[in-house]
Amino acid sequence: MRRLLAAVLCAAMIMGLSACGQEDGASAEFYAMDTNMSVTAYGGDAQNAVDAVQDALYSLDLHLSRTRMDSAISRLNAGASLPAENTDISQLITTAIEYSDATDGAFDITVAPLVSAWGFTTDHYQIPTQKELDGLLPHVGSSHILFGEERAITLDAGTKIDLGGIAKGYASDLCEQILFKHGVTSAMVYLGGNIYVRGSKPDGTAWRVGVQNPKNAAGFVGVLSLTDGYAITSGGYQRYFEENGKRYHHILDPATGYPAESGLTSVTVVTPANGDEHGDRPGHGTMCDAFSTALFVMGEEKAVELWRSGAYDFQLVLVTENGRVLVTDGLADKFEQEDGSGYAYETISRNPA
Ligand code: AMP
Ligand code: MG
Questions:
Q1: What are the pLDDT digits (tens) for 215-255?
Q2: Residue in 174, 279, 173, 267 with CA at minimum distance from that of residue 229
Q3: Less Cβ around it within 10 Å: N or C end of the chain?
């Protein structure tokens, strides 16, 4: 995804460069939240908007990181209480629990000890023993997150949280609000696989977002044409290690403690933007991020079932291990198949045939 999106971004950047000569365009590339990020904005106070986005993302990183010892999340994981005045983090944790409930626990921020056991926190990868996993699994589950007076949060002993599956989506929600406040009319925000686009491109055409071929970092399975929306992808190919010829990736099944093996190789969740009046609350970006991780764990059947239930407003591009690309019908006029990708394409409709 990274290389392909980089290609898409490059196009955006090239446009950005030429538009930077005009007064209303600005862009920045930087590293935060453990990933490469970029913002390109046009209209309004674009330069200040880009600066404000960058500041907000650095600050969010300081609060939410599990590897920075002084972050609010690290303190919570070390046994401290998260004071009620941390309303933004508390709202995010509450939202994460809602998505955990909506996905029967497939999305669960209390996977933190499991993520550490596999070495994904430090990049010192290892396969944990079954005994080790059996010792950690009882501490996994949203019921171990405790809400006290005024919703101050504490964790049961042995439970830790990891917002890696939702934080960048939330960050993209904040970006939408910041860009709106600065009067930006057209923008693309890329937060390592999480994309938010505002308006259309300055030339009036839709932004084009590539969906990476999980089997080939240099190829797409297709391209989405988006205006005012989010597109967030989770895939086993994004972070993994190999041992004895087997691949172990970073999206874990909270029920088993093992990397999820659901038959999906990537999940892209697409939603409309939140709208200008949404404010700083977690919104569609957060939902896309939680669901992309969760549906990867749940697999094709349950993912389609959740989509068909209509309980949440999202569309999907699912790529399966057995060579199929499934696109929900709400994306029919937005998804362009990649000729020669070798995949078979199917449209999923609301009512099963
Ligand atoms: P994403 O790239 O959004 O799918 O998030 C993957 C990251 O979320 C991992 O690197 C872990 O930090 C964390 N994670 C892994 N498995 C889960 C899960 N089942 N639920 C919630 N977070 C998870
Ligand atoms: Mg996610």
A1: 998 899 999 999 999 999 999 999 999 999 999 999 999 99
A2: 173
A3: C
